[in-house]
Amino acid sequence: MDLINDKIKKRYNRIAPIYDKLEMIMEKGKMGDWREKLWQQVEEVVKKGEERLLEAGVGTGKNIPYYPQKTEAYAIDFSDRMLQEAKKRIEKLEVNVQLREMDVQNLDFPDNYFDVIVTTCVFCSVPDPVQGFKELKRVCKNDGKIFMLEHMRTEKEPFGYLMDSINWISLLSWGANINRRTMENIKQAGLEVVKEEDLFFDVVKEIILTP
Ligand SMILES: C[S@@+](CC[C@H](N)C(=O)[O-])C[C@H]1O[C@@H](n2cnc3c(N)ncnc32)[C@H](O)[C@@H]1O
Fold first, then answer.
1. Which residues are bridge partners to 15 per DSSP?
2. Range 25-41 average pLDDT
3. What's the pLDDT at 50?
4. For residue 69, pLDDT beyond 90
5. Staple 132 to which of 52, 124, 126, 162, CB 3.0 to 4.6 Å?
6. Is the Cβ atom of 15 under 6 angstroms away from ligand 1?
7. Average per-residue pLDDT in the chain?
8. What is the mean pLDDT of residues 150-154?
9. Nearest 5 degrees, angle CA 126-CA 89-CA 86?
10. How many angstroms separate the Cα of 85 from the Cα of each of 10, 74, 75, 79?
11. pTM score
12. Beta strand spans in 44-168 (E)
């Protein structure tokens, strides 16, 4: 597993300096709208302003502008080069976020610690996604919520098989799988699905979970 972790990390390190440029068209299109909608729902659960928030797989920090102002915010990623880009964004925005180099499969946080956890387009590349979800379940408070935007394999055939057959291209070029069975992985980790909304067919979903 260490070998696979290193490979995926290296691929994200390699694309980190150009990642935002590569994603620019998607971001200006639907992805930006989907992020905004997700964070509006996060805002609704962090009313007190004393909540603790974790973003897992922060990447270059595209969600950082949306973090609710008063939360105690932590953002982790296992790619140091992606974190460098996120750090630049934090400095520019002058926001208070604790950035940590950490693997979502082995989080260095206590049990039952976060009120809100957010991931966007992360579980396509976590080498052992079920273990990653188990860690989110462990660090999330019992009454906490996990908000996600994730893309996954379609259940509609033959498109699912097509995604299986070309998965190697995205995996080799930037470390992401396009054929993850993410809803199955969530269930295997024992998380409860509160909301599952298809945003782009059944490939891109907004998901809300509780431990
Ligand atoms: C496709 S990028 C998405 C970045 C960001 N969430 C966004 O929406 O722009 C996936 C990110 O997840 C990180 N990642 C993948 N596996 C990880 C793991 N096991 N632990 C921590 N971060 C991970 C990658 O390094 C990368 O920064």
1. none
2. 94
3. 83
4. no
5. 126
6. no
7. 95
8. 98
9. 20
10. 15, 16, 13, 10
11. 0.97
12. 52-56, 72-77, 97-101, 114-120, 140-151
Q: Which two tokens stand for residue 164?
A: 């299986």
Tell me if 121 CB under 6 Å of ligand 1: yes
CA distance 159 to 65: 35
Can you give the pLDDT at residue 146? 98
Mean pLDDT over residues 14-31, rounded?
Answer: 92
> Which residue among 26, 42, 125 is best mutated to probe the pocket of ligand 1, counting the most ligand atoms within 8 A of its Cβ?
125
Relative to beta strand 204-210, strand 140-151 is antiparallel
Q: How many CB atoms lie within 10 A of CB 190?
A: 11
- What is the identity of the amino acid at 197? E
Calpha distance 180→113 (Å, rounded): 28
pLDDT level of residue 110 (50, 70, 90 thresholds) = very high
What homologous superfamily does CATH list for 2-210?
Answer: Vaccinia Virus protein VP39 (3.40.50.150)
The dihedral formed by the CA atoms of 137, 32, 10 and 82, expressed in degrees to the nearest 10: -90
Contact 182, 123 (CB under 8 A): yes
Give the pLDDT band (50/70/90) at residue 3.
confident
CA of 205 to the centre of ligand 1 (A): 17
Q: How much distance in Å is there from the Cα of 46 to the middle of ligand 1?
A: 24
Q: How, if at all, do strands 52-56 and 204-210 pair?
A: unpaired
- For ligand 1, is residue 75 a contact (CB within 6 Å)? no
What would the pLDDT profile of 181-191 be if each residue is shown by its tens digit? 999 999 999 99
Report whether residue 125 contacts ligand 1, using a CB cutoff of 6 Å. Answer: yes
Residue 189 alpha carbon to ligand 1 centre in Å: 19
